[in-house]
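Work Package 4 report. The design task specified in the project plan requires that, given a folded chain encoded as structure tokens, an amino acid be chosen for each position. We show below one input record used in the internal validation round.
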């Protein structure tokens, strides 16, 4: 599966929330179906997201690239340390959760 293509499809056709604070918020409220964290995300951010995702039983995918790479995939001119997929739309990005466990 091409991660970049699936993520762009999810952003275009579904609902995705960018940013670590927003990701934690939607995860706590039960709206997230998948959480993606960049490999170089700050340790405290990563721990918070993983903790709340575990409580909400939401799978976490650790993107092997940097937050700059993740921002570029999302077609944003800034770093994206974390994002939450609320609705995958026409993408099959939720299959990532099954592949990494």
């Amino acid at each position: 599966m091409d991660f970049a293509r699936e993520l762009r499809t999810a952003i275009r056709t579904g609902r995705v929330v960018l940013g670590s604070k927003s990701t934690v918020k939607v995860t706590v409220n039960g709206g997230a179906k998948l959480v993606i964290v960049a490999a170089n995300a700050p340790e405290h951010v990563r721990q918070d997201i993983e903790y709340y995702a575990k409580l909400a039983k939401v799978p976490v995918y650790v993107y092997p690239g940097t937050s700059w790479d993740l921002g570029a995939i999302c077609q944003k001119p800034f770093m994206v340390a974390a994002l939450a997929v609320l609705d995958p739309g026409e993408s099959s990005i939720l299959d990532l959760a099954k592949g990494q466990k």
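The mean pLDDT is 91. Validation will be extended to a larger panel in the next phase.
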